[in-house]
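hey so i finally got around to running both of the ones u sent me last week. sorry it took forever, my laptop kept dying halfway thru and i had to restart like 3 times lol. anyway pasting them below in the order u listed, first the sequence line then the C-alpha cell line for each. didnt double check formatting much so if smth looks off just lmk and ill redo it

first one:
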Amino acid sequence: MCKNNTRKVETSRFRPYFVACIVSLMKMFFGVCIGWMSSASIALESNPPELGGDRPLSSDEINWLGSLSFIGCLIGILIWGPAAEKIGRKNTLRLLAIPVIMGWTLILVAKSVQIMYLGRFILGLSGVGAVVPIQLYMNEFSEDSYKGTLTSIMVLFFNGGIALSYFLGSIFSLKLFTLVCSMMPLIYLLAFYLFPESPVYLYRTNRKKEAELSLLWFRNNNYIKVQEELVKLEENLIYGLGHNEKTSLSNLYNGRARAWALIINLWLFLLLQFCGILIMLTYTSSIIKSSGSDLINPDNGAVIVGLIQLIVCCITTMILEKTSRKLLMMLSMAGMFISQALLGWYHLDDYSQIFPNWLPIVCICLHVACYCFGIGPLAFVISAEITHPKIQATAFSLFALWATAASFASLKIYPYLITYVGESGSFWFYASWCLISMVLAPKFLPETRGKTFEQITRLLEGDKVEDDDCKQELKVGCDVSIKRMNQKV
C-alpha cells in the first residue's frame, strides 16, 4: 500500500540535478584554480616565465602561489556563510563569481609576483567557502532520497575542474589558459538567473507564496508533492526545526551523538587534506618530472591523471547510494596508502633502478582514483548525514575553516618535508595518515547509507540499529506522509 501511494507523488529529478550541476560549477572553478598550478609550476620556472614579469619564480614563490589561495579561503568562509543567511542562497551564489573573475584577471595582467599573489588570494575567496552556500542550497531544494547523490555531484565537478585544467594546460600557453579561466564564470552567471531561491529559505523569511512557487519549479509542478512538503515546512517552523541555532559553539558537541559527529567531521576533513591528494593534484607534472621517468611528457601525464579522476568520479556518483560507506572508505585508504608507500620506495636511491619507470604515473593514478571513490565524496556526504540540521550552517562553516587551514598546512609543509626527510619521507608521511585511518574506520565510522537522521543519531549514541528497525521507521514515515497528503487533497 505504501509503495503504491508513494509512486503517485514521485517527481522528475531533472531540474534538481540540473541545478546541482550549475551550482557545482563554482567548485569546478576552484578545481581549475588548484590544477592550474600543475602547469604553472613548470612554466613560471622557465626563463623568461610566461606570466608574472621577466624573471623566473623560485620554488618558494611557486609554493606560496599554491598556498595563498587557501588563506583566501579562510576569509571567504567567514563571508559566505553569514551572507547566505542575510541575503539568501541564490544572491550569495551569484556573488561568488566576482572574486573568480577578479582573481584570474589580476594574474593575467600581473607584472610582478606580488600581483599574482593577490590574484591567487582573491581566487581563494570563492574556493572552500563556496561549499557552505552550495550545500545549504542543495540540501534545501533536494529530497532525502537523492541528497547524497547531489553532494557527490559537487565533488565530481571539483575533480572535473582539476581534469579540465590539466587538459587546457597541455594544449594552451599559460597566458591563454589563464584568459579562458577568467571567462568561465560568465556561463555560470547567465545560467543562474533561470533558478528560483531556496524554498526553505523563502519559507523561513515568511515569503510562503514564493516558497510554494519555488517548490513547484523544483518538483516539476507536482502540486500534491509540493503541498505535502509545505506541511512539513510549517511543522518544522512551528517546532523550531527550520531555524539554525544561533547560540554558542557548545551546541556542536552538546550530547554524545553531536560530540561524536563533531569528532568524525573534524577527522574526515583533516584526512581529506593530509591524505596527500593536494600534493598529487597541485604538483602532478612536477612529481612526474622529478621522478626521472621519460615514459611520458609531464603535462600529458597530468591529463591522464585528470581523465582517470573524472571517470572514477562519474562511476562513484552512480554507485554511492548502493555501496557501503564504510567499505568504500577502507578501500580508499588502503589504495592511497599503497600508492604513496610505493612512490616513497621509488624515490630511494637504492630502489630507483629496481622499479620500472612507469611506476610513478601508475601510483599517482591509483592514488587519485582511490581518493575519488572514497574520502573525496564521502567526507561531504557523511558530514551532511551525521550533522544535526539545526546546526548545519554553523557546523559547515566551522568544518570549512578547519579543512582550509589543514589544506594550507599540508601544501606549505611539503617543500620542508622534501628538504628535511627527502621525497621518500614526504610520501611516507602522507601515507601514514591513510594507514591510521584505514585501521580506525571499521570501529569508529558509522554506516549511514540508507538510514534516517534519527537512526544515525542512535548509532552515534552507541545503540544498534537493525534493518528491521529501518524498515519499520520507513513504513511509519510513509504512512504519515500519505495521511497528510490525503488531508490536503
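and the second one:
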Amino acid sequence: MLASAISVVKTKKYVAILVTAFIILAGFGAQHAWSSNGLPRIDSKTLALLATQHPVIVLFRHAERCDRSDNACLSDKTGITVEGAQDARASGKAFSADIKNFELYSSNTVRTIQSATWFSGGKKLTVDKKLMECGSGIYGSINAILKKSANNNIVAFTHNHCLTYIAKDKRGVKFTPDYLDGLVMHAENGKLFLDGEFIAK
C-alpha cells in the first residue's frame, strides 16, 4: 500500500515537471518567430527566458542621428535628435521591465553615448572606443566586456555596420538595422553565438 502511494506521488511529480517544461517551451516558441531577414525574432519576454539560461549580450544601434534628420537636435549636431532621445528612453523603460540586471556600454561617439544615457534610466555607463571596430574585431571587444562584467547581462550601443557585419558573419543574412534595432547574442565555451533580432514590444 505504501509503495503504491509513493509510486503515485512520484508519478504526479514527474507529470508536473513535464507539464511545466511544456508550458515554458510552448511560450518560448510562441514568442520566437522569424523575421523576413532570416533572423529569429526575440522579444523582451523571450530574452528574459534566455537570460535565465546564460548571460545575454544585446547590441543596439544608436537612436536617430541629428546630422541625418530634420528633427531638432538634442544638443550636439553629431549626437541624436530630441525624438531619438525620447525613443531611447521609452525603449530602455520597456527593456528594463523584463531585464532588470545588466551592465551598460557604448562606443565613444556622441550619438551612442547619448542613446545609452537616455536608455539607461540612471544606470552607470561605460564608454569603450573598441565598440567602434565593426569587423571581426568586434568579437574581441565583446569578449573583453564579458570578461570584465563577470558574466552579467550586457547592453551595448554601437553602429549599424557592426550589426550588419555580425548578422552576415554569424548567420549569413542581410540585416539593415533601423535606429534602436538590436541583436541578441550569448557566449558559450568562449565562442559567441547570434541568437536573433531583438524586437521591442
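quick thing i noticed on the 2nd:
The beta strands are 41-42, 56-61, 103-106, 125-127, 154-158, 182-188, 191-198.
anyway thats it, ttyl
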